Amino acid sequence: MMSSGFTNASASKYLVVAVVASSILASVTDTKHLFWFAIRPHLIDYRQFWRFLTWQLCYTNSTEVLFSALTLYQLRVIERLWGWRKFTSFLLVVVTYTTFLPPLLVALIIRPLTWGYVNYIPAGPTAIVFALLAQYHAAIPYEYKYRISASDTTRNSAIELTSKSTSYLLPMQLALSQLPGSAIVAAVGWLVGYAYRLDFLPGAANWRIPDRSAGRKERERYDGLRRRMEGEAATASGSGISGATGEGAGRRRTIGGQILDQFRGTV
Fold it and tell me: Is the pLDDT higher at 133 or at 37?
């Protein structure tokens, strides 16, 4: 049975909520101008390097918010496939790389090659969306194929599509929303996502956020073992008293009782 909504996808739910809420908050507080930036003047003239840390925090366009939220909703299947811990670790790795790569690529390579024409970095986590989309493209199989054909008197042509084809329409709109900057950010996100999958990012594919529940589970397992050993020792002690006295009772101790004595510090 297919899971609906955000079942088993809590991180995806919070990500969608953050995308929508951050945009609303930026609109209410009139701070949208603090998120997008142009290489010149923000970076070259004003030295506002803090914009590297803010440009992915929210969208400044309601259309982009809609496309991004809907795309992240359909990509929640990645979290169900990986689990919360790997999914969250992936997001942190992607954010680390995409925070600096698109602006530096535009500032150091694309802008000089285009004589300053490409100068703008649009705000919003588009790179994160496309890094997730790369995982969706590689990991989720299609269910069926179909053809759209068009024929006339001279030729017959057909386009072959899959059940996943429509899933790329919304993110494509996101990539084309503020050309050329949005397309550059989307391409960098896609490449980072595939580099993560192919283990081209040093140490990133195997890194995981610390699992705090592991220590608690280990303590619970140890407590259960201790209680079981105490029960075995009590049972053995009762059997020894009723069946024998003196040295005979000592010889009837179970292995569990002996191990428990070691924990208690007895010999």
Answer: 133
